[in-house]
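Supplementary notes for students who missed Thursday's class. We covered one full example, reproduced here. Read the sequence, then the structure, then the short commentary at the end.
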Amino acid sequence: MKKYKILYNESAFVCGKKLFRIVALRSFGNVAEGEKGGFVENYCNLDQEGNCWIGQHSAAMDRALVKDNAIVCGAAIVHGYATVSGNAFISGGSSGSVYMNVGFLSGCNYDEFVEAGGSAVISGEAVVKHGVRIYQNAKVYGCATVLNKATVKGHSEIYGNALISGYARIADHARVFGFATVKGRSFIKNNAVVYGNALVTGDSVVMGSYAVGGGKRISKGILSGKRNPVIE
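Structure (token representation):
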């Protein structure tokens, strides 16, 4: 039995496309029968299997897919070819002004708007919340957490128990994993690696093939070059 249907009489224009609200046909997970969800472009955006769901203030469009037990809620949009799977949890803001560039859903805070686009993959037990942008071919998986206006893009990967927060940027082929934390306005790019229990904060830049590991603490400066370029 299908778990939801599309209400073609309830629509919204999102980024120039007409999307339609969904409603649950039966109870599953934390969703009750008859509960209205967010907006999709078509049935390909939300799997009928598992406990996956798109909340009232969220949307999935293009060829994006939410599946397994993944949840997308709050002020959030999944678009392009992005995939949200496993037990991943995406949550944007839930109070404040109308979206400025989306054109729907009053009662949402644009400052905490979460976007997953391009061919991004968010999976496993990953948590993505509050103003985060994940796009291009970036991957966030394992038990990684990305918060508070951070950006993850390129072919970068965040995994393990890594934490990315603040206005931190992760780009290119950079990797952050283990129990590493990157926050503040730090920028990790190129083939740089942050791992172990390392902390990178402030306005630090880690680039080239530089690796920051162990319990090292970095709060300023530019780290570059080829130090421990291969970390498994």
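Commentary. The mean pLDDT is 89. The chain has two domains: 1-135, 150-232. If anything here is unclear, bring it to office hours.
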